[in-house]
Fold:
Amino acid sequence: MAVDGNWNLTMTTPMGEQQAMLSLKAADGTLTGTLGAAGNTAEIFDGIASGDNVSWKVSIDKPMPLTLEFTGTVSGDSISGEMGIGPMGSFPFAGARA
Structure:
């Protein structure tokens, strides 16, 4: 799938821009992988890949316990979308294939 591979992400957050490494693999509509940022790596869950559209969740515990909910679109070597941060709202993310 076009989404498979490693991605360098820039996420806009209430604490400023954060960099992350996203690794994705799609099979039969299911999206799996990991998201690594600030020295921590977490498995993604509830991942869905449908054509160029992707969505997944990841739980973090720093700077506080949260579940981040991502929805985005892959276009060639670019990925972009929105990241939901629970009660703090949604913020954009963008990235390029690593």
Observations:
- The radius of gyration is 12 Å.
- The chain has no helices and eight strands.
